[in-house]
């Protein structure tokens, strides 16, 4: 009888531990990015929350020199996974991740045959809003597309927080499938504690034809776009 009581006590004690371990299991999207020749590609991975192409951006990660990335997400479910590497056509796909599990994906990117059609980020800036006493900073990007078929994917990524953002166009757009205008896109970021560190920010633009700008990182000075051979 004493043995049974001790056994029940032990099982009861272990149940909360098992529940804690399960609750702490991370929900992750991870993977590799390579060229068709198998070369690892560095770049940027950004996630939409929910259905793909709904422009509700959530998390992101930098892809390292070995072509690896890992993103911990707050909840399971559907995501739109978008992968970018300078000089390559970007790869969008719908994925579904289960709670407490890691979804592994392999991405293969194809070089853009010409850069004549790709959007260009001409300049970015970080401007404190004086009316809010520096607690809000405007992140701005001057964007142009030679074919005038920009879409909503004028995107900013803060590597320090893991947050991905769609920047607001120069004028209100009601249809995500419409051609978005060239001009200055912006994003208002709450900065109550510390000012923005430009080194944390990365930018990329994709148009409706999946033509993609080079990823613009600190010091945010655009270079001539090269065709990958």
Can you walk through the features of this model?
The protein is mainly beta. It contains 1 helix and 14 strands, in the order αββββββββββββββ. The strands form 4 sheets. It has a 4-stranded mixed sheet with strand order 4-1-8-6, with no helix packed on it. Strands 3-2-5-7 form a 4-stranded antiparallel sheet, with no helix packed on it. The longest helix has 23 residues, at 2-24.
Would you summarize the structure shown here?
By secondary structure, this protein is mainly beta. It is built from one helix and 14 strands, in the order αββββββββββββββ. 10% of the residues lie in helices and 45% in strands.
Q: What value does the average pLDDT take?
A: 89
Query: What is the H/E string?
Result: HEEEEEEEEEEEEEE
The end-to-end span amounts to 77 Å
Count of strand segments = 14
Rg over CA atoms: 21 Å
Largest sheet: 4 strands, mixed
What overall geometry do the principal axes of the alpha carbons give?
Answer: globular
Query: Portion of residues in helices?
Result: 10-25%
> In percent, how much strand structure appears in the residues?
35-45%
- Tally of alpha and pi helices: 1
Poorly predicted tracts of residues: 3-8, 10-15, 17-23
The secondary structure category is mainly beta
Spatial strand sequence of the major β-sheet: 4-1-8-6
